[in-house]
Amino acid sequence: MNTAMKNPKNVIENFDLYAPKLVSKEEFFSPGHRACQGCGEALAIRLMCKALGKDTVITNATGCMEVISSLYPTTAWNLPWIHVAFPNSAAVGSGVEAGLKALRRKGKIADRRVKSVAIGGDGGTMDIGFQALSGAMERCHDMLYVCFDNEAYMNTGIQRSSGTPFLASTTTAPAGKKIPGNQVWKKNLPEIMVAHNVAYVATATPSYPIDFMNKVKKARQIKGPAYIHCFVACPTGWRSTSETCIQLGRLANETGIFPLYEVEDGKYRLTVEVPEKRRPVQDYLKGQGRFRHLTPDQIQVIQERIDIEWETLMIKIEHSRSKESLRARRSR
Amino acid sequence: MGKRVGMEVAIASAEAAALCRFDVAAVYPITPQSHVAEHLSDIVADGRVDASFITVESEHSALSAAIGSEATGARTVTATSSQGLLFMSEILPIASAMRLPIVMLIANRAVSGPINIWNDHSDIMPMRDTGWISFFAENGQEVVDMTIHAFKVGEHRDVMLPVNVNMDGFQLTHMVEPIIMPEQEEVDRFLPPYIPYATLHPDRIVSMGTLGMPEIFAEAQKSKNVAIVNSIKVIKEVWKEWEAQFGRKYEPVQSYRTEDADIALVTMGSMGETAEIAVDELRKQGVKAGLLKIKLWRPFPFDDFKAAIKGIKVLAVTDRAVSFGGPGGPVFSEIRSALYEEAVRPAIVNYIIGLGGRDVQVEDFIAMVKKASGGKLSEPYEFYGVRG
Q1: What is the CATH classification number for the domain harbouring B43?
Q2: Does B74 contact A102 at a Cβ distance shorter than 8 Å?
Q3: How many domains does chain B contain in total?
Q4: Cβ(A181)–Cβ(A168) below 8 Å
Q5: Interface of B with A (CB under 8 A)
Q6: CB interface of A with B, residues 99-118, below 8 Å
Q7: Cβ of A81 and B65 within 8 Å?
Q8: CA dist., res. A15 & res. B154, Å (int)
Q9: A 126-185 residues with CB below 8 A of B?
């Protein structure tokens, strides 16, 4: 028995310290798959699966993760797994949920809860799969959707998606002589999911593994739709070195360009502390080839936008109330 | 024995699915399929079948959700028409490649443009090569029977393929017809519970829909083709079993007065009944006319068709869809190709008829037969009765 098990109270107080000992050693996403060195997404999936546990069915949209993990006749998946197409993992996942529910109710399968979890990249979630995601969340299936956002169509060769950040250079929104990369701001999908009245919405990154896994566990327990937007570094697409994968996720949080928060029943909460004086966005941008062309003025524009987005989020954190607490107040 | 009732065919098709005790229905409404969607949801809402009804946000998601639920082992039904079927087209060949016996009720309707909600076969024809078994019903009774056949055939371990049941939009879906609805107990005897080959469940872990590289992709395609080609054996067995239990006979190609016929019309779908009346009228006039009705479109019943045309000198093949810039309508092309190697084969002409709900009457079929009696038309294929 390790120290963590002997002193459970202590563990809760120092959860981050002891958590590595509590994380399942079981591997549901096996090594030997074909992801690039330093792939944030493959790491995130491995952690997600550990947090989900065995009673899970994964529906995978077409993308890097399907390609690197399921080259017939091999598979990296030690969980029931299905891939159908690019735009429909949320719809397929909703069918998985409906099928399992009906079969369980009718006594045709074991009487225990098996969670349907659909996953996709930013393109498969925010662009081509957006309608299916909206439908599945709105219909209140008991399912979790996790978007692994590496901010472009990496599988097809770094083309711009609606997850691509402002001014990033991609192969379809390149930093040209006249136009310096992507011309619009990143779509805020977590916020759109909050607007769907999804009971649990969170942002995460594998750079904070315990935070991410806690969110996955929480989302799994929700009896209804839940959404996690997981920010993952892509060294290949970001033109960053593979060993900076974790560091970039941390910098994204510390600069406030991708803050880690959760929205539970409508109540916003920051889950990972950010220093009072946030680091300048420059620290995050500088290690990445996709931002190499930025001028100091352009970086300033990005900094101002982040400051305003940050303040907006702080206002929500300060003023939002859970629907439960609003109900309680009405009945008083 | 079932009771003879007057029932709208769209509703009857949903009732037939209910008799098959589906577990999940994932349906998006579209005219003229909407009564199917509504009635399936009524059945679930009233608890007449213990099932989940997924009110998907599109046809693309309807078939996607159907794949998800069928992959868990749930008996799943969906339904669509026209644009909806085309919207599903990305997913259709995946359903068959994954060998998931989903049943789809199709209210056949013209494909836009211009937009048109009425009946023809231009929706199913472009979906011909997606690896689905395709039944074509001629009347309400056949819609009901074929819906039940579809589950039994598709779920058969030697088949494991999705099946679509084609019923002409409005001409069938919105007609109230006399239909013998089988009893639940009879259907239970005919259709065993679905025992899937593999399912998505942690008790037996599988990966479905993996990546096929060039080394395996062609083999996957071939195996799907072998499965659908061989399915005709199971289809015929199922139809024999049905005939034994219910007394109604089904054949891939149904012949009407062709024994001594010189000329035969070929139809698919609801126009068969109108063509029958035309054949009777022609016979009265001394014309040796007959009719061949194709009930099984995929797999195409080559042997049955060859056997059915023995002695016939002219085939007047009707098509309810256009192959733009092609050799004629899709049914015509199929038949001409099927008969190419026959030492003795009939002359074959092609009429494209009934597009977008254009009415085709008994007199039209009579005129078509008379015009084709010489075995040749002035054009390779004729848009019968069309201006311009």
Answers
A1: 3.40.50.970
A2: yes
A3: 2
A4: yes
A5: 23-24, 26, 50-52, 54-58, 60-61, 64-74, 76, 90-91, 94, 98, 199-203, 205-213, 216
A6: 99-103, 105-106, 108-110, 114, 116
A7: no
A8: 53
A9: 131-132, 134-136, 138-139
Token readout for A238 is 């970001």
Residue B303 lies in a domain: yes
Q: Domain of residue B322: give its range.
A: 253-383
Task: Tell me the three state secondary structure of residue A159.
Answer: strand
Q: Tell me, what CATH number does A69's domain have?
A: 3.40.50.970
Spacing of C-alpha A255 from chain mean position = 18
Both B164 and B309 in one domain: the answer is no
Chain B contacts in chain A segment 5-64 (CB below 8 A): 54-57, 59
For B27-60, the pLDDT digits (tens) are 999 999 999 999 999 999 999 999 999 999 999 9
**pLDDT tens-digit map of B166-184:** 999 999 999 999 999 999 9
- Which domain covers residue A322, as residue numbers? 3-331
| Residue B388 included in any domain | no
Tens digit of each residue's pLDDT (9 = 90 or more) over B197-221? 999 999 999 999 999 999 999 999 9
- pLDDT one-digit tens code per residue, B90-148: 999 999 999 999 999 999 999 999 999 999 999 999 999 999 999 999 999 999 999 99
State whether residue A269 sits within 8 Å of chain B by CB: no
Least CB–CB distance from A94: residue in B50, B65, B200: B65
Domain tally, chain A:
1
Cis peptide upstream of residue B114 (ω within 30 degrees of 0) = yes
Q: Does B152 share its domain with B287?
A: no
Per the listing, tokens 């494991």 go with: B160
Asked whether A324 and A265 are in contact (CB, 8 A), the reply is yes
How near does any CA of chain B get to the CA of A61, in Å?
A: 10
**B101 shares a domain with B27:** yes
Domain boundary pick from B246, B274, B304: B246
Tokens of B174: 């919105």
CB-based contact, A307 to chain B, within 8 Å? no
- Taking the CA of residue A208 and the nearest CA in chain B, the distance in Å comes to 28
CB pairs under 8 A between A and B: 173
Say how far apart CA A237 and CA A229 lie, in whole Å. 19
E strands of B56-120, at which residues?
76-80, 103-108
Please check whether residues B299 and B336 belong to one and the same domain: yes
Average pLDDT rounded to a whole number, residues B372-387: 96
